[in-house]
Amino acid sequence: MNVFLSIDLGAGSGRVIAGIHRDGKISLEEVHRFDNPGTDLPGGSYWNIIGLFRDIQTGLQLAAEKYGDAIVSMAVDTWGCDFGLLDQHGRLLGMPHQYRDPRHEGVPEKMHCLMSEAEIHRHTGIATNFYNTSVHLLAEKRNESPALASASTLLFVPDLLSYWLCGRKAVERTVASTSQLLNPSTRDWAWEVIDALGLPRNIFGELVDPGTVLGPLRDEVRKQTGLGEIPVIASASHDTASAVAGIPMTGPNQLWLSSGTWSIMGLETPDPILGDEAFEARCCNELGANQTIRALRNISGLWIIQECKRQWALDGEDLSYAELADLAMEAPAHTAFIDPDDAVFAAPGGMPDKIRDYCARTGQLVPDTKGAILRIATESLALKYSVVFDGFTSLSGKTFDRLHAGGGGIQNQFLAQATASALGIDVTAGPVEATSCGNIIVQMIATKHIPDLVAGRQLIRDSFDFQQYSPQDRSSWVAARERYDAVLKGATS
Fold first, then answer.
1. Residue 216, Cβ neighbours under 10 Å: how many?
2. Catalytic pick among 55, 82, 239, 339
3. I need a surface site. Which of 196, 289, 421, 431 has the fewest CB within 10 A?
4. How many CB atoms lie within 10 A of CB 40?
5. What pTM was computed for the model?
6. Which residue from 234, 242, 179, 295 is spatially nearest to 407, judged by alpha carbons?
7. Whether residue 339 lies in the annotated active site
8. b/e 91-130 (16+ beta carbons within 10 angstroms → b)
9. Three-state secondary structure of the chain
């Protein structure tokens, strides 16, 4: 038995997962789960990065007690874009801001005065979004941030946690590629963009590929956890990069969906998709495992449903996700639609009212029950998937007959079925823990327990169950898509 530890942090919770490899299969065991709530302070919205590291050490200690000498390695993956700044002595200069921190407001427009969005896309392959590191660093510069002025090193959240684990300051390329400050063709920093924005060059340090062995655990961490000189691996440190590595696609140019708080749909390709059409389609080119490119679109995902759940809990009715799915399925179909990516839904708070207001503003039937709100949110997400799907069909010139979906969002079977029906193609769903699976197989490649990504994906196919969904009631979904397109066009006109 060999055990590989996946430290997987999302925007709401974190986990230490043990990947147990024996008898030709992987099984996953959750060692420790902990909350990751953001905190709003007078200076903005922050992550409790020190608390997260403390919880990681607790998870490692529990893993040491349970698995002992069977532990081979560990690796961290997290959401993208957010970062910490270190001084010349490696000390953290303040808590990392959240990507939803309002400091981004109005900054993209100012950034595009320094370099046009089309030119930035030409250098980075990334469309401008409110969460990009480029936007938040420029906000720090415009606010005359003392932390930025004093910084010697920028580390993204997984890089910062890995540094605290093993002592090496390095930036893993998949998470760096989310920043809008990396060139996907050269795989180096996009210096033209960095210079145009007036950002300090010195903070952009060593870049490493996924699968790099960073070094053994620091002595202090070993004493705290009871572990030995276990190597820390730079896995595919962006959680979506790990998720895509963990989705067992069977060939090149496969269409994939990582489903969670964010939904991300895209292709795994050898080269970035650039040019005017890619820019107009807001195609983003992020790096993946095994020298691949993830040409993708970010979609709001389950965020809207999660925020509805949170609001109703604050109002005194704490419903489970299973109960929410049942309410949605019981409500009438195709009564109204929203654009999940409309800016009005980006900030937390009051989500059910925001959905009702959107429907009223666009001249649609306003939902008056929880089930109707949830059905609108779910069907609208599936229809937005179909819009992005059409875009990738046009960009790639390929015909796709299957979507490979992974991540926690595939547990919403109503959404999975709606996705197959809206796209008009089969959906293969699994594994639920795609991110941890990808994190673990990159570790296994780095430690030479498997030869390559192809072998890793075969191992995942052999180890987990998958659900299959085929399109249903296709004619009604085609009609719904026509109405959906009209609503979105009217909302932006």
1. 19
2. 239
3. 196
4. 12
5. 0.92
6. 242
7. no
8. ebbbbbbbbbbebbeebbeebeeebebeebbbbbbbbbbb
9. CEEEEEEEECCCEEEEEEEEEECCEEEEEEEEEEECCCEEECCEEECCHHHHHHHHHHHHHHHHHHHHHHEEEEEEEECCCCEEEECCCCCECCCCECCCCHHHCCHHHHHHHHCCHHHHHHHHCCCCCCCCHHHHHHHHHHCCCHHHHHCCEEEEHHHHHHHHHHCCCCEEHHHHCCCCCEECCCCEECHHHHHHCCCCHHHCCCEECCCEEEEECCHHHHHHHCCCCCEEEECCCEHHHHHHHCCCCCCCCCEEEEECCCEEEEEEECCCCCCHHHHHCCCEEEECHHHCEEEEEEECCCHHHHHHHHHHHHCCCCCCHHHHHHHHHHCCCCCCCCCCCCHHHCCCCCHHHHHHHHHHHCCCCCCCCHHHHHHHHHHHHHHHHHHHHHHHHHHHCCCCCEEEEECHHHHCHHHHHHHHHHHCCEEEECCCCHHHHHHHHHHHHHCCCCCCHHHHHHHHHHHCCCEEECCCCHHHHHHHHHHHHHHHHHHHC
Listed residue (134, 20, 105, 15) closest to 66, CA to CA: 20
How many angstroms separate the CA atoms of 162 and 91, rounded? 14
Contact by Cβ (8 Å): 14, 7: yes
Q: State the chain's maximal CA–CA distance in angstroms.
A: 63
Question: Is residue 243 within 8 Å of residue 258, measured between CB atoms?
Answer: yes
Rounded Cα gap, residues 433 and 460, in angstroms: 10
In contact, 235 and 277? CB cutoff 8 Å: no
pLDDT in tens, 215-273: 999 999 999 999 999 999 999 999 999 999 999 987 766 799 999 888 999 999 999 99
Give pLDDT tens digits for 291-326.
Answer: 999 999 989 899 999 999 999 999 999 999 999 999
138-167 core/surface letters (b: 16 or more CB in 10 A; e: else) = bbbbeeebeebeebbbbbbbbbbbbbbbbb
Distance in angstroms (rounded) separating the CA atoms of residues 58 and 56: 5
